[in-house]
Structure formats: C-alpha cells, structure tokens
C-alpha cells in the first residue's frame, strides 16, 4: 500500500491488518463466485499471504491488485485440480493394467500393497515417485518436469519413498488373510 506515511512503512503488521479489514470480505465474495464456498477460504488465505509477502508492492488502490492475485490463485487451483484428476485417472489406468495383466514375478499381494500405498501419497509425491520409478527420469530431469527446483524435488521424492515404505509395511495383511483385489484410489493434496 504505497503512501507517504512513514508510520505505515514502519509497521507492516498494522498495514496488513488494515488491508485485511478493508478488503478480505470482498476477496471472499470474489472467491466464492469462482470456486464455491468450499475452496473460497483457501483463495482468501493465499491471496493475503501473497499480499503479506509483497506488502511493499501493494498499491494505494489495493482492491484491484488483490483481485488479480485472487484470480491467479483461482487459476492455480484449477490447474492443480486438473493435475490431481489426471494423476488419479492415470493411477486408475495403471491399476487396471496391473490387475488385467499380472506380472509373473510380482505376487498379487505385493501389487495390491504397493498400489494401495501409492494411492495414499499426495499428488506431488506420487508424481515424483512415478517420474523417477515409472518414467525412468533422473531426479534433475524429473524436477524440471515437475516444475520445481532439484532440491525441492529431491525432498519430495524422499518423502514419497519414506511414506510409501511406511504405508506398504502398515498395509500388508497377515499371510493367512485372503487378498481383497478391489482397490480404491484416494485423492490426496500437495
């Protein structure tokens, strides 16, 4: 919020609070029109997080600037939703392929355990694991495909592998328990 008041420049919390008080309800109304009440709070939170991080860039006429940030946030959410649906569809396809054409060297129990564990990962973690394990990409190339830095990708891949190991171990039924071949995919968040 650009103005000549030195007090506001010295007190970013007060400046941000005033920004919130003046415009949060308008951003919420905008978000509810575009994403509905379930996701509107997330749009508002993300919009004001950007405003906090870029407080020096917020112009004196803040509402249009905040609405542009909210519009971009809505667009990002839509792209993320599309990617989540695409990953879920791809996982469903993979499950179908595995169940239709079982591998000779992999038992049905192991397949089911791995697929269930894979389904518990967040979409970003699943993508990281599949880019490296399924698509055969090196971590650097996979980071480029995932649209993140190599270090962020390495962390994502490490978390995915750890969570997959824990989920696989926790999901394995006792040896005498019959195997249920129905697998329901779970849609996790990043």
Describe this structure in words.
One of its GO terms (biological process) is DNA-templated transcription initiation. GO terms for molecular function: DNA binding; sigma factor activity. InterPro entries: RNA_pol_sigma-70-like, RNA_pol_sigma-70_dom, RNA_pol_sigma70_r2, RNA_pol_sigma70_r4_t2, RNA_pol_sigma_r2, RNA_pol_sigma_r3/r4-like, WH-like_DNA-bd_sf. This is RNA polymerase sigma-70 factor (ECF subfamily). It is built from 8 helices and no strands. The chain is elongated, with a radius of gyration of 22 Å. The chain starts with 5 loop residues before the first helix and ends in a 19-residue tail after the last helix. Helix 2 packs across helix 4, helix 4 runs antiparallel to helix 5 and helix 6 crosses helix 8. The chain folds into 2 domains: 73 residues, RNA polymerase sigma factor, region 2, helix turn helix motif (Rna Polymerase Sigma Factor, Chain: A, Orthogonal Bundle); 87 residues, Orthogonal Bundle (Arc Repressor Mutant, subunit A). With 190 residues, the chain is mostly helical.
